[in-house]
Amino acid sequence: MLKIAYDPIYAHNLPPGHRFPMVKYELIPGQLLHEGLITEENIFSPEPLGGETILLVHERDYWNRLKNLTVTPKEERRIGFPLSARLIERETRIANGTVQGCFHAIENGVSFNVAGGTHHAGTNWGEGFCLLNDQAIAAAYLLKKRIASSVLIIDLDVHQGNGTAQIFRNEPAVFTFSMHGEKNFPFHKEKSDYDIGLQDGIGDDEYLSILKENLSSLFDQIHPDFVFYLSGVDVLETDKLGKLALTRQGCKERDRMVFEQCFQRNIPVQVSMGGGYSAHIRDIVEAHCNTYRVAHQIYF
């Protein structure tokens, strides 16, 4: 059964002025329920994640500053919005949705977190609206518990997964792959195990050709036993921040490529939704829902 991590707290408790496009956290499951693609049985609400698991990747001083709301004004500006206790709780629930999603992926082949993809958070910093790095935490958890021994993180958000790259720079059991806009945020990029920086304006054909050329060889090289996929839809031509030019169909085919590799090789994959900043919320929601639709076609 397809399992999706979602909690109403995902969509609320954001500071005023930051709720669009985060309203997508409500609209995505609502649309899938409306279509009959999922039922309430497919949705689970994660509890807050404990500090012990968070500390697998984040430094204790940083975590203490977050939970005690004692970050400096400079740190808060880098994060991008004012912090609150409810916001920190929201982040811990999102991170646990990804951790718990790993077990659902192992059982069913694939699982989703409506939120997540907080790949700009490093060991001791938050950045770009990311406080805790959900997929990095979950990957470290799988290694710690010896549930996985070789992890591949596929980050296809338009922005480089700089926090994820920094966290795992000295961890050979985790291979970080980021395909992103070279001239886009973050302007200081960390070094992933494999980075592909794309020029502005790339459309479907060129994007999909580059991905196809590299994706299969990555699996052959790494032989992962678990995959994390960050499926940001800020690659769309309608995105206000992305600078690429993919259509919804091109974005959908991107997802299909990733899922087919995982399905054919019988490797579980956890999906976090990542960014999307199109002017019209329908473009964001439709592209994210396409990711679920493709997974449902392949796995169920």
Quaternary organization: single chain
| Name of the level-1 CATH class | Alpha Beta
Give me the CATH fold name: Arginase, Chain A
Percent helix, as a range, is 40-55%
- CATH hierarchy: architecture: 3-Layer(aba) Sandwich
Strand order of the largest sheet: 2-1-3-8-7-4-5-6
Q: What's the mean pLDDT score?
A: 95
Structural class: alpha/beta
The structural domain count equals: 1
| Terminal residue distance | 8 Å
Biggest sheet layout: 8 strands, parallel
Give the SSE order as H and E letters. Answer: EHHEHHHHEHEHEEHEHEH
Q: How many runs of DSSP E, i.e. beta strands?
A: 8
Assess the beta-strand content as a share of residues: 5-15%
Radius of gyration: 17 Å
Poorly predicted spans: none
Shape: globular
Number of helical stretches of at least 4 residues: 11
Full CATH superfamily name = Histone deacetylase domain
Question: Which structural traits does this protein have?
Answer:
300 residues; 8-stranded parallel β-sheet; globular; 8 strands; alpha/beta; 12% strand; Arginase, Chain A; 11 helices; single chain
How is this structure best described in words?
Residues 19-290 form the Histone deacetylase domain. One of its GO terms (biological process) is epigenetic regulation of gene expression. The chain has 300 residues and is α/β, with parallel strands linked by helices. The protein has one domain (3-299): 3-Layer(aba) Sandwich (Arginase, Chain A), CATH 3.40.800.20. The protein has helices spanning 8-11, 24-35, 51-54, 60-67, 73-79, 85-108, 134-144, 162-167, 204-222, 248-264, 281-299; strands spanning 3-5, 43-44, 110-113, 151-155, 174-181, 194-198, 226-230, 269-272. The chain has an eight-stranded parallel sheet, with helices on both faces. The longest helix is centred in the first third of the chain and has 24 residues, at 85-108. The chain is globular and about 45 Å long. The protein starts with a strand and ends with a helix.
